[in-house]
Amino acid sequence: MTSETPRRRLAPEVRRRQVLDAALAVFSEEGFHGASMDAVAARAGVSKPLVYAHGGSKDELFAACLRREAERLLRSVQAAAGEPGEAPLVRLRRALRAFFHALTTQRAGWTVLYRQASTGPFAGEVDALRRRIVEQAADLMAGGLGVPRAVALPYAHTVVGAAEGLADWWLTDPDAGRATDAEPADVLADMLVTVVGPGLDALTGGAIGVSAAVSDER
Amino acid sequence: MTSETPRRRLAPEVRRRQVLDAALAVFSEEGFHGASMDAVAARAGVSKPLVYAHGGSKDELFAACLRREAERLLRSVQAAAGEPGEAPLVRLRRALRAFFHALTTQRAGWTVLYRQASTGPFAGEVDALRRRIVEQAADLMAGGLGVPRAVALPYAHTVVGAAEGLADWWLTDPDAGRATDAEPADVLADMLVTVVGPGLDALTGGAIGVSAAVSDER
Amino acid sequence: MTSETPRRRLAPEVRRRQVLDAALAVFSEEGFHGASMDAVAARAGVSKPLVYAHGGSKDELFAACLRREAERLLRSVQAAAGEPGEAPLVRLRRALRAFFHALTTQRAGWTVLYRQASTGPFAGEVDALRRRIVEQAADLMAGGLGVPRAVALPYAHTVVGAAEGLADWWLTDPDAGRATDAEPADVLADMLVTVVGPGLDALTGGAIGVSAAVSDER
Amino acid sequence: MTSETPRRRLAPEVRRRQVLDAALAVFSEEGFHGASMDAVAARAGVSKPLVYAHGGSKDELFAACLRREAERLLRSVQAAAGEPGEAPLVRLRRALRAFFHALTTQRAGWTVLYRQASTGPFAGEVDALRRRIVEQAADLMAGGLGVPRAVALPYAHTVVGAAEGLADWWLTDPDAGRATDAEPADVLADMLVTVVGPGLDALTGGAIGVSAAVSDER
DNA sequence: CATGAATGAGCATTCATTCAT
DNA sequence: GATGAATGAATGCTCATTCAT
């Protein structure tokens, strides 16, 4: 018999990450229902009971993936958005750049979060995340300028939706954002600011110097 | 056997529509994997083999639902967009209004298209549809004004993504678009034009009279 | 390929009995936990889903076996016990004869009822059955003679317990009851009456002519 | 690792008893199949491998419990039965009293022996025990009076079965044996002698002074 | 010696799919 | 043409058992 990988003993947290990583990959490729625990185990290179030991039931495992990826994504974007003192569109642009950058390293996570989870028993969890993101965006604007919340909220939904649309495009089409030789993530973020920035200006009655913000920080 | 409902022989195309309708309903409620062929048959009020006879395998059935709903949606929007002669933003707004209106009568279809199908073996099919929509939007602008395709395409992705985001919001949150007592579908469409219109103006170097178009046709 | 048994279509009630019979056999041999649905299916010569279709879940299947066997057994004994008008010991003897006779054709049922089910989620069901039997026996005596219930009840438990003990012996040991060439079931029943009859006489202060009853109806 | 409970090295036989006690408790509560080795280990407060080291496989562990409890029970009863010199019914009554008394302190053991083990791979073991008990009872009578073995054996089965029936009743129903305020174990034992004593007298043609024995030793 | 970590094997259950009527 | 009856193939999950430390 060829010397199979010997039954190594690993630290629980290492194993847990291993399992979560495998689960994320499989879930993102096959979807929640399409993914089998066997497939997760195989991907992780371990036995099925170990998956259960470290990840719990299939539902728990999926929820754990979800939460981990959401946390990661939110953290990146929040850190990039910076302090409330700055100009809203500048903060928005930095946040969007961070968002598109994060997707490059979290492609599977994004897929799981936005394509797999919005259905089934986790719609609630994902909805909550989405709401947190949108709220954050709405706060960014409602706080930064005097925009009333009732105006900021649909705007935030629009921007977040647009970002998701571009993200999907980017992850699907290899040419997306590659018109120039700048970093595609930045190109897409800037593009988005260019498109929605003036609209925000219009909504707020010119409270922001859009063009300045848009042309800034290149 | 006592002749209960006499199991009328129906014309094949009628049966087919019956089956597709049932399938759409079940798929939209339970998701692709959650839906069982038994449930579809029960919903259609026919036997399972008949479902197979008229709808093919589960995959084929799902794909058929997908295509039918996509066709419907595209047709509505295309019809509303009108002729190439008119002002792009006017056409865009009409198209968006039609889109949001269509969702009210095609809620199940939308759910299936965008929540269930974007994963699994149908991602391709959905992608193709999305691409058709985006192409159409890009044409609308690239044709209407002198915008180069390379600029129009990402813009189109942005707008379509934003529309999807708002649509999800709308279908999820009962308050979405109900700030005034205007038709919510129109409110959302107009909101979107307000947000992305000026950006288009900026992108094209002022080729369109945005403000006019935006305030027009109220 | 050798012509396997062709997938015959059978009437539902026939199939159901087939499945129940197989389940009873397997349960009686392996116990509830030891029995696998695969084994039941194999024994019935059908596929596993068919077992589920006709027998429900494993629990339901077991419960169904239980109830069917209990019903059978009770019916036999009740019929044999006859009308309240007759002498108690005569009725008791006839009932016991019927009981031991029933065991010959219901060996598996007995095992399932008394050896498998007294544990696990069905203890309640079996307890109820046992109580019905004991109550019936107690009534037989409390009603037939003037014995107070408080005396009849432990007596009934004693007699039923003794009958079960003999039954186990009989089903285990091939020699049991074969001292003479009379029907073993009858020998055991009569033996039991001989042993416990005089005790009943003693308990009731000689209300019954035991010896007469005991020697009667040979 | 911080030395919590220092996991004392214990003498092997002490450990073994610890493990057997835990196993008995778990088996009696959950049944053979329902009991998991994890549960046994947890109950014993030791690790699973230690259970294997001291108790062997699950089957062996169960068998060990079985044998230990059987031994205990037999010893109690044998000791109580006393010397062959005495009157058979007196000895029987003492033995029965000891039996019912033993159950109060060995409830778990009884449950395991008679409810869990009578099925599956241990039926043999339990049968052997039962046979030893019955043999003993038969010897008691065949030896004490001139009864031939062929008569004594079924009688013994009857008495033992009746005792088991009463025991089950007692352990199930809290009112059993509590008519007077005498010790229930004694009440049940005496009750049993009252019921089966006269029958033995009848079988042997009046060789024993039943009434004397029965009323004796109150 | 004692254990945490790991696994092979099995089980109840469901479902898409297809014959026989 | 339409259906009730049947099945092959998975799938989620658990457990007795054993290494590596």
TrEMBL record, chains A, B, C, D:
Alphabetically ordered keywords of this record: DNA-binding, Transcription, Transcription regulation
Residue ranges constituting the HTH tetR-type domain according to the UniProt record: 13-73
Keyword Transcription regulation: yes
Any Pfam family matching the protein: TetR_C_46
InterPro entries for the chain: DesT_TetR_C (IPR054129), Homeodomain-like_sf (IPR009057), HTH-type_TetR-like_transc_reg (IPR050109), HTH_TetR (IPR001647), Tet_transcr_reg_TetR-rel_C_sf (IPR036271)
DNA-binding region in chain numbering: 36-55
Protein's recorded name: TetR/AcrR family transcriptional regulator
Naturally occurring in which organism (per UniProt): Actinomycetospora lemnae
